[in-house]
Give the backbone structure.
Amino acid sequence: MATLADIAGSVYATFDGTGGGALGLDPADKVCLFIVDGLGADLLAAHPSRAPFLSSALARVLTAGFPSSTPVSLATIGTGVLSGHHGMLGIQVAVPGEGRLLNCLRWTTDGPPIAPDTWQPLDTVFQRLAHLDVASSYVAPAVFDGTGLTQAVYRGVRYVPADTLDERVEGVHAALRATPKAYVTCYYGHLDSMGHMMGWGSPEWLDQLAIVDGLAERLAGALPPGGVLYVTADHGMINATDKIDLDLHPELTEGIALFGGDPRGRHLYTLPGSTDSVLQAWRAVLGERAQVASREEAIDSGWFGPVNPELLGRIGDVVVVTGGGCVIASAGAEPLEWSMIGHHGSLTPAEQNVPFLEIRR
């Protein structure tokens, strides 16, 4: 199955005329990519009546890659490679040799700051498109302008702050018409937020889905003649039905120096000599509720795609991938994550399958 990593090369090919890339996209000089945070393909398919415009679009399904979380997938879309190559390997990832974590979503860490272009040094598709005289713009809430994550995955874009729906439509419309060749990315995050708080499929989530559908229709209406709108997502979502509180399982904290990842995809960084005992303890407690693998087993299974050897230290000594509705968190140390209903990060179809929709004018 094609992945989110195929979008960058395929969009590039629509501008350079080499045949549309892995996704076989037709040539176009005006392209808008609408990224809806949390809009899993399976979730969209379950509620076509709340998203009639999107449900009627020409569609295929991509896989998000692992971990299926926002910073990982945005880096995948921006660079055209999977996490084992771009190095954004989860929400919270160890800074090798420093005994601390980098939160790749908020770009926070204990100790000295980490430069985004050092952590993720690969050129983005936006930088590459500049060589084809394509102007790239990013239309998104003002709060994300200049953040570490934005600098890591959107280098080469002109940032267009847009908080309201009207501002997003106007920003896309203007950016598409400003230059002869334009690639505009538009981001919407409230569907994901509502899913985390209320659960996907809840009345509140369905209301957000209808808003997304209306925004997509308006963005399609903003296309110039010959323009194309692609709609995709960074991941899907599951609702938590089986919560494991680390505070109640001291056997799951023994031998661990740092807890990384997120409640659906944990990176466990172990103390020296403790990896085997951590593997045994987590496998004994979780059983069939999760896949518990050593770093080597996770890499050999292809979870991260091809892995750059220089990035090995960012991957947990033990990697835990939950199934079903299972989430693993500390109610005391991670109260926000513990309170969430909707989660993502794992390998289930509901989290991995994302839509790739096409609307041409």
